[in-house]
Write a structure and sequence with these properties.
Blueprint lengths: L1 H4 L9 H19 L10 H18 L6 H34 L9 H8 L4 H7 L7 H4 L7 H9 L3 H8 L3 H28 L1 H6 L5 H13 L10 H20 L4 H18 L7 H6 L2 H8 L1 H17 L6 H27 L2 H5 L2 H24 L1 H4 L3 H4 L1 H4 L6 E2 L2 E11 L4 E7 L10 E6 L1 H4 L2 H11 L2 E5 L18 H17 L5 E5 L24 H19 L3 E5 L28 E3 H20 L5 E3 L2 H4 L4 E3 L1 E2 L2 E2 L9 H19 L3
Helix pairs in contact: 2-3, 2-16, 2-17, 3-12, 3-14, 4-9, 4-17, 4-18, 4-20, 5-6, 5-20, 6-8, 9-10, 10-12, 12-14, 13-14, 17-18, 25-30, 27-28
Length: about 675
């Protein structure tokens, strides 16, 4: 058959295309090292998309003598042999490293799911569904997030051979194939433009908004002919190629500018491929074909696969941003990429045995390998509680605020829970429990994420006292913060707060308890960045007094009905997150240099204004009180996020699971002590 005689040609490559691949991968790596180094470097992914479309079309065009079934089988065999081996190796090694070094936390919440779906080319759909911002901390700490681009390509491959094969027969079918790819390009580009204005996060990851870039490369190959770029057009083609390179340089140099920047990178890449077509002896083609660039381009797939997990795992451990760690990340990336290219990519891709084996047998084996590797990765993840080097993963119950499922001294006592949507909440009650000191009462817990961080205390309270408990999910929306800057007009949060208060008002009875917990003092650091801004000095001014009066007015109807309102007094806040700074491998992380302790004097001073506000609000509400956990979380001289090897705080300000258990007896005692005053 004609395609069989061309089998050797498949291993050939166009040197300047390898050079262009090198430009693309180095741009992406530079951006991920430091965005200020090459602000538009992420556009290198768009360069890859165009090149992929062009090269895949060129390889498929060599199979013009195949039947449709043979063409499909051969196409997927070649794609699996090209993509799967290095991908599986990278994903499995990353799964092991993540299990060992990455703690279970909000920052890593989507990591495992992203990694598992990456085996099947679906990670981009998960990231789009979750609305993950590629530039947010959750992406910076997800070692699999870069596989979104592979997902786009692999989903494109589901339709490519169906449309492309007919075009190989020439005539009307060729133009139908070209028309189909043109329609794909136009529809996808329109979808990208519309989605960019509706939800840029979804547009970034979604296949329908990216197909046009790969289709541009396919169309270029379908339309390119020897006559188009030779003869009298050589000089104009050379000028156009240099112009395309300049446009690409600008696209990579300027900060990301949405669909316009992507369009510039795609047009420039298409221009370079077009105007260098069959012009390998031109000056620009020779520059791109320099041996160092070609070597990097040949390893570009492995470099792309490995660089992001290496950077992310360094960020989780030693930190990533100092000259030493940046250099270490680069060296490790190139070493792993070389090993992957030399011992995984090349042997499998050019194996005579795999190339001559029945195509559909190879495809089925490849799919089975993907499934087996995904199952292995899932099994690796399950080893975390026993093998992880992270104390957060090994001692999850101490770090994470988990629902208390039962009582150690009452085997029959079990927690009953249900989730409701409007307003979002979890309701709890104890079944077959002996403690009935607060039977008939309901504890409502509301505020922001700090209220959710009391879930362990709330469920323990329900089991021990016989009360019911309701914890409202309100993360990201503060209620009763009494900080004018934090209480800025957020219509959605304000509406949610009113909805929750209305729900409590409709359900609560006299004697029920409302625990209000929010972050009412400025943060001193965050979970993702080592940068700590200047301390915000809070002021007891007219705006604060207005916020106090507003909160008192909102709560007065509940207090007048005999509902006992308990304000959670401000707790200490720390400059470093405990869950990222409690292991031997992260002691040198710049994020942790600010320490996990502060003086009691500083902690008291930091909350003084907010504490005064809460006391004034409580004084205007019948039966209201303050539950102050600080004396139990600090000793006379200092406050520590981790004390005697046990965490009191998960990050810089949210309570840990251990702290919930520690504070529960004091909370029950507080309610009993203040009951007689109500």
């Amino acid at each position: 058959m004609k395609w069989a005689r061309r089998e050797q040609a498949e291993v050939e490559h166009v040197a300047h295309i390898d050079g262009l691949r090198a430009v693309a991968v180095l741009a992406v790596m530079a951006y991920h090292l430091d965005p200020s180094m090459l602000p538009g470097g992420l556009r290198g992914v768009d360069v890859f998309f165009v090149i992929s479309g062009y090269v895949v079309a060129a390889a498929a065009a060599r199979r013009d003598g195949m039947t449709f079934a043979a063409f499909i089988g051969d196409f997927y065999r070649r794609r699996l042999l090209r993509i799967a081996p290095a991908l599986l190796a990278c994903l499995l090694v990353t799964a092991v490293a993540s299990m060992l070094f990455v703690p279970l936390a909000w920052l890593s919440d989507a990591n495992d799911e992203t990694g598992l779906l990456a085996f099947f080319g679906l990670s981009n759909l998960l990231l789009a569904w979750r609305g993950e911002d590629y530039f947010a901390p959750t992406a910076e700490f997800n070692p699999y997030v870069h596989t979104w681009s592979l997902g786009v390509e692999e989903q494109f491959y589901l339709v490519f051979p169906l449309i492309f094969h007919g075009g190989l027969r020439g005539g009307r079918l060729r133009w139908l194939s070209i028309g189909a790819f043109c329609l794909m390009l136009v529809a996808s580009l329109a979808d990208a433009g519309l989605r960019a204005h509706v939800d840029a996060n979804v547009a970034f990851y979604l296949t329908s908004a990216r197909l046009w870039e790969i289709a541009a490369g396919v169309l270029l190959h379908q339309l390119a002919t020897k006559e188009a770029w030779c003869g009298r057009t050589n000089r104009l083609a050379g000028i156009a190629a240099w112009t395309s390179l300049c446009v690409l340089a600008v696209a990579l140099s300027l900060p990301a500018g949405g669909i316009a920047a992507i369009l510039a990178a795609v047009v420039a890449t298409t221009g370079l491929l077009a105007f260098l077509h069959r012009r390998g002896e031109s000056l620009l083609a020779r520059l791109l074909a320099m041996p160092p660039l070609v070597a990097v381009g040949q390893r570009s797939y492995s470099l792309y696969l490995w660089h992001w997990p290496v950077f992310v795992l360094l960020r989780w451990t030693t930190g990533f941003g100092t000259p030493a760690t940046l250099l270490a990340g680069l060296v490790l990336t190139f070493v792993l990429a070389e090993l992957s290219w030399r011992f995984v990519e090349q042997p499998v891709r050019h194996s005579i045995r795999w190339r001559r084996a029945p195509a559909w047998s190879v495809v089925m084996f490849g799919v089975a390998s993907l499934c087996g590797a995904a199952a292995l990765a899932y099994g690796i993840r399950s080893l975390g509680p026993t093998m992880s080097l992270s104390t957060v993963t090994r001692h999850r119950a101490d770090w994470h605020v988990l629902e208390t499922q039962g009582l150690a001294d009452d085997a029959a006592c079990r927690l009953a829970a249900r989730t409701l949507a409007r307003p979002a909440r979890r309701e709890y009650a104890g079944l077959h429990c002996h403690g009935r000191s607060h039977a008939g009462q309901t504890l409502f817990v509301f505020g922001d994420s700090h209220a959710i961080a009391y879930s362990g205390l709330a469920t323990g309270f329900a089991l021990q006292t016989g009360a019911e408990a309701v914890v409202y999910a309100n993360p990201g929306c503060s209620f009763g913060a009494l900080r004018p800057a934090a209480a800025a007009a957020d219509a959605e949060c304000n509406a949610q707060g009113r909805e929750v208060l209305a729900d409590i008002g409709a359900r609560a009875q006299a004697g029920d308890i409302l625990l209000l917990s929010s972050l009412r003092v400025p943060r001193l650091g965050d979970q993702a960045s080592a940068h700590v801004g200047p301390a915000i000095e809070e002021i007891d001014d007219a705006e604060r007094r207005t916020a106090e009066a507003t909160l008192a007015a909102e709560l007065a109807p509940l207090a007048m009905r005999g509902i006992r309102i308990v304000f959670d007094a401000p707790k200490p806040v720390f400059r470093a997150p405990a869950f990222r700074c409690s292991d031997a491998f992260n002691v040198v992380n710049p994020l942790c240099r600010n320490g996990l302790e502060l003086t009691r004097t500083d902690a008291e001073a930091h909350r003084a204004v907010a504490l005064g506000s809460l006391r004034r609000v409580a004084s205007h509400l019948s039966g209201a009180s303050l539950f102050d956990a600080l004396p139990m979380l600090c000793d006379a001289a200092r406050c520590e996020a981790v004390r005697d090897g046990k965490p009191l705080f998960f990050d810089g300000d949210h309570l840990s699971g251990h702290a919930n258990r520690l504070l529960l007896p004091a909370f029950i005692a507080h309610l009993d002590r203040t009951a007689s005053l109500h």
